[in-house]
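Appendix B, record 7
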Amino acid sequence: MRKFFQEIKADLKFKTAGPGQKLSEPSRVPKEKPKAEAAPKPRQGPTDEAQMAAAAALARMELKSKAKLPPSQEAIKNQVRKELLAEAAASERGLPTEEQDLSSSATEGAAAPSVSGVYFLCPLTGAVVRKDEKEKHLREAIQSYFSVDPVAASIMEIHTFNRDRERTRAGVETMAKYLDNIYQHPEEEKYRKIKLQNKVFQERISCLEGTQRFFQAVGFETKTLPVPGQETTEEYYVLKEEMLSRLEDLKDYKEQLLSSEPVRAQLDRQLCLFQPSPAAARFELPNDFYNLTAEEIKREQRLRTEAVEKASMLRTRAMREKEEQREMRKYNYTLLRVRFPDGYILQGTFYARESLSALYSFVREALREDWLPFELLGPGGLKLTDESLAFNECGLVPSALLTLAWDTALMEDIQAAGEEQPPSPLKPELLSRVQTLS
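Structure tokens (predicted):
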């Protein structure tokens, strides 16, 4: 068999000589001179078995040569794997046991995240809580507010925890109409009773969270009353007699009900200031920044693996833009860093759909003199002048490093005036808690 492969190799060398090269005869092993009495045997071609073995060997050689991806594709795969492992690690609590074991073992030795998570500021208590604790904290805060102002607390409950805004609006308007009828016609007893099994009440009001507490808070009580002309009874909300002397209160409750808005926790920027660092462009994000469930993370792993193979394929501009937009919608938040001319790095968390004006305001609030004009440059030196654009429209999600540049002409005028300038344009209280970027 070895002799056969030597002959195949020699034949290939003979057939693949380059242009301008003289085709040389394959070297042959000298044969002994045949005996006179033995006639030379004609050369036999390779058997079918030998041909199959040779083809398999050549196929293995080709596969081996293709197995190693170019460095660029290797880098893409490594980055994809790195992101997926970070996502899976933060969502272990929602994964089955066998997936938890897989993700926990894969994330060993992963770099520490650039920020510990997404946090919110509760407008009722002033507490800063994690994203996954936000709704629970709001519920507890509103619940505790019932002891202070039960009407206001029930209204907050209605507007905050009923997600269907259109249904909530319809229910609120119907409830306001009940109160308005009592205010306009206090002498009419029929307006002071609300039948709980009424179709309109069932479809618009009883389905909403917090409505029962509201009626109790504004002076209604539940009573079981006989149905006129029948031997059956039904439940009603009946206004207490004492409320007839407080009709102006009912009017105020109605207006408060109609004008209130949902209680929303505010995104905490988690402002940080870092010393100058070459690691400013390196980000490690927790799962809070991704708009993905555990199941979607598994699907993303498959899609991103396919994306590596599609990276070298020709695609139309429309196809690329569509994929980019789909990619941008995966993120709820973005972590942004702004590098100042003196090297200091200002960091904050933003909604992915917030506009650039929020970032400009964020930077101005960190300056000693907030009137100083500046501009922000995105990756590649692109000037970000349209402050109405959203971060995801500018490609600044889920993270980005930007550069701050001062107005050159103004800075020259300030220097020419001979005014002594502070060592840094940032507020002293920020400089006092500057950190080292790991």
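Remarks on this record: Confidence is low (pLDDT under 50) at residues 1-5, 8-38, 61-81, 90-109. The two ends are 60 Å apart (CA to CA).
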